[in-house]
Amino acid sequence: MFRFFGSGSSGRRRKTGADYAEEFLKRRGIEGRAPRLPAWALVLRSPWDMSTQVTSWIGGLPHGPEDFVWPTGHDGRPLHFIAQIDLASLQPEPETGSPPPGLPDRGALLVFIGRGYACRLLSADQMERAMVLSLPDDIGPVSDHGFFGDASSFRFWPIDPVAFLDSGERPAFLPDKFRRPADWITNWGIAALDCRIAAESLKSELAMGESFEKSQQELAELRKRKPELQAQLKSNKKVIESKTDHYGLMKRRAPDVIEAIEAWHRMASSMPPEDSVDPALLDELFQVRTALSDQMQTYAPKFVLPGNPDRVWDWICREYPQIRASADFEAVPAAYRPFIEARITGWRGHRLFGIEPPFANNWEDLRMQDCLISIAADELLGTRSEHEYGLSVGCPRFHMAKGRFDSGQLVRHCAV
Predict the structure, then answer these.
(1) Of 2, 20, 195, 302, which is most buried by a Cβ count within 10 Å?
(2) DSSP calls for 168-180
(3) Nearest alpha carbon to residue 277 among 208, 353, 339, 342
(4) Could you give the C-alpha distances from 397 to 33, 168, 169, 370, 394, in angstroms and in order?
């Protein structure tokens, strides 16, 4: 934990809140850092496209020579393997022609995390003798470090490193594939599923509205029968007014919208599920849906009616639980696969080098450091934890330029 020292009785000026804020901002490491840096997005492969040889991956087990010594953390316990990068796959960044800083052009980079971190550079000769390395007998579950799950390793997933010039934003070559419904509702199978979810959301809201109306009537009757309970039966006026307005809108508008959605669902379900959806018809439907959602307050259907790919993904995962349990996608219908591929192979926040945006809730001193690797909290990999949105390794940039990667720090990105 860092401390800021102000004046006491020594006569020095007492530090103000502005002084502490300035010092804290300096610790974020923005000063002196280039506005754009070469980076390599670590793109997860589609589960249906394993045709090319896997040479880089996140999770699973590392490959190395038989005499490889598994690194340990500050507590003396084995670290958990997080990533292996084939250095020959790291093409120069196209715009600047820059190679990865400090790395040879062949061999492999292995990264381990836990109580601290460790990086191991293996030469091309060592990789020619590489074998699958076994987990140490005394390695604990990833939950020892706050990650969800009791496995002893993160989930294996092949990746392809792709070079880009990083400004701290989403890479331009990986645009948001879910910005508009037409971007991801591309066939009749996904269109029918999205309609089903939207109709169920509105029906659920109507049922809650009926329950709310009934409860208010019962409460009014109780007040009449037992005036002595008035003090105990107080209600939050603003909440009641909000719900009254919302459920009134639902009662007036939702049945017609449900009818339109269900009619569209019947049409979509009658079509070959893998065939392309009619974009003009899709646009007409969403005009009806968004006309209602635009009038709504922040209740659940407001976030479903405009199209919600997260809800679609959750439905697919509930229907095919093996997706989350074991990353088995073989039973998923063909109509759902383009949607799943787009979700998996898009920008998920995993990156080698580049610019790490400032961490709003972290205390680490990152001055003169750049990012070596960043792994986001990802349900597919088992890198999620309760109060974090990812992790990264930061190294002094002058060390990194010389290929020295063990003098930095592991940063867990605090979400709260």
Answers:
(1) 195
(2) SS--TTS--TTSS
(3) 339
(4) 9, 17, 20, 6, 9
Q: Tokens 């020892």 identify what position?
A: 144
Chain segment 45-64, per-residue pLDDT in tens? 999 987 789 999 999 999 99
Q: Which two tokens stand for residue 54?
A: 């896997």
Closest CA to 270 of 262, 258, 279: 262
How far apart, in whole angstroms, are the C-alpha atoms of residue 88 and residue 99? 11
List Cβ neighbours of 61 (8 Å cut-off, separation of 6 or more): 81, 132, 133, 134, 135, 153, 156
pLDDT band at residue 2 using 50, 70 and 90 as cut-offs:
very low
Q: At 297, list the tokens.
A: 């307050």
Q: Are 86 and 103 in contact (CB under 8 A)?
A: no
Write out pLDDT tens, residues 304-321: 999 999 999 999 999 999
Please state the pTM of the whole predicted model.
0.89
Separation between Cα atoms, residue 191 and residue 181, nearest integer Å: 9
